[in-house]
Amino acid sequence: MRFLTAGESHGKGTIVILEGFPAGLGVTREDIDFELSRRQKGYGRGGRMLIEKDQVEILSGIRKGITLGSPITLFVKNSDYVNWEKIMTPDPMEDKAGNPLSRPRPGHADLPGGQKYDHRDLRNILERASARETTVRVAAGAVAMKFLKAFKISVESHVIQLGSISSKADRISNIEDLNKKADQSPVRMLDKTSEKLAMAQIDKAKEKGDTLGGIFEVIISGVPAGLGSHVQWDRKLDGRFAQSLMSMQAVKGVEIGKGFKNATLFGSEVHDEIGYRKGKGFFHYTNRSGGIEGGMSNGEPIVVRVAKKPISTLKKPLRSVDINTKKVIKAAYERSDVCALPAASVIGESICAWVVADAFLEKMGGDFMGEIQKRYRLYLEHLNNY
Ligand code: EPS
Predict the structure, then answer these.
(1) For residue 9, how far is its CA from the centre of ligand 1 (angstroms)?
(2) Of 38, 48, 55, which is best to mutate to test ligand 1, by the most ligand atoms within 8 angstroms of its C-beta?
(3) pTM of whole model > 0.70?
(4) I need a labelling partner for 233 at 20 to 30 A (CA). Which of 51, 121, 188, 349 fits?
(5) C-alpha distances in angstroms, 32 versus 39, 140, 172?
(6) Sites in the chain below the pLDDT cut of 70
(7) How many helical (H) and strand (E) elements, i.e. helices and strands, does the chain have?
(8) Ligand 1 centroid vs 48 CA: distance in angstroms?
(9) CB 61 within 8 A of CB 71
(10) 39 vs 159: CA distance, rounded Å
């Protein structure tokens, strides 16, 4: 399976085409809109989320609530486009609406993108680099999640660190109704003390014209052993998670299990001892590896942690250089989120859901749900008898 997204942040909207998705899965607009609305929430977001009410339009590939096996096209319109029509129009325009943006923001795509594509108006870069693009990645993820649900695989997340505030609920790899609980928190943290401190830190950053990042954790339960493969670099499941998650705007670190901590310990303190129980099959006594060994799922919950840097659009801008005058100036500021970490954790779920669904389909094979389900039953039988 693969997908491609397109769209500018203040253009007509964002769009995604999903290719290779099997037939026979029930998917409704409500399924997708539910995830889209989760992406819009979180304490610390800016004015844009008050303008948008992200809702999907299904343009192809789903008929009467069932996937057809043909490309699925999902479109999410930008309500803000009406305010940007003159600036973002694809038509040739005499009108010089919108001053060319010449003050690159440190940390954003503005400068390297301008250099690479030879744009003198940095808006031509920032519009596509914007995290608005994640809208349709979440739409794609919602379809993948629906697929995984049919095989009792769940994808959930929570924020474990926001700025300097660590959640006390760090490293819970099997919590019931994790998402239900995290969704109740404005910062998607599980313990109330950290939640309060984190919100206070967001308030402080806002006051100072600054921004905040942090770390979230995605937990994927119900994954059978054997997704991904050790035989080739681009088939390794951990590598696929890292690439997909790193491609999310502002993400600067990805860790599987206790990745960085494990690097500081003895091997005997790191590796998860293997057990066997009749009926249950093989299992591990611990899960420090985060459910992936040798580039393959090992049957334990997959635990992925993602570090997101603070958003680079600062109300109190950093020093930069105007690309035309070459004079030292302050970077451009329009409006921005102070902290989009809670939303990022929702986006992370979607990205992980796609990775798992892709690897799952690759392993089981099949073009329609009944076929895949049959093959999965056989594979589970194989695992039980192994
Ligand atoms: C976003 C929409 C954007 C930003 C944010 C994500 O809207 P606007 O640029 O109109 O405020 O809020 O994008 C960025 C953080 C960024 O650096 O571009 C969204 O829908 O998530």
Answers:
(1) 7
(2) 48
(3) yes
(4) 349
(5) 11, 8, 27
(6) 94-98, 170-175
(7) 13, 17
(8) 7
(9) yes
(10) 14
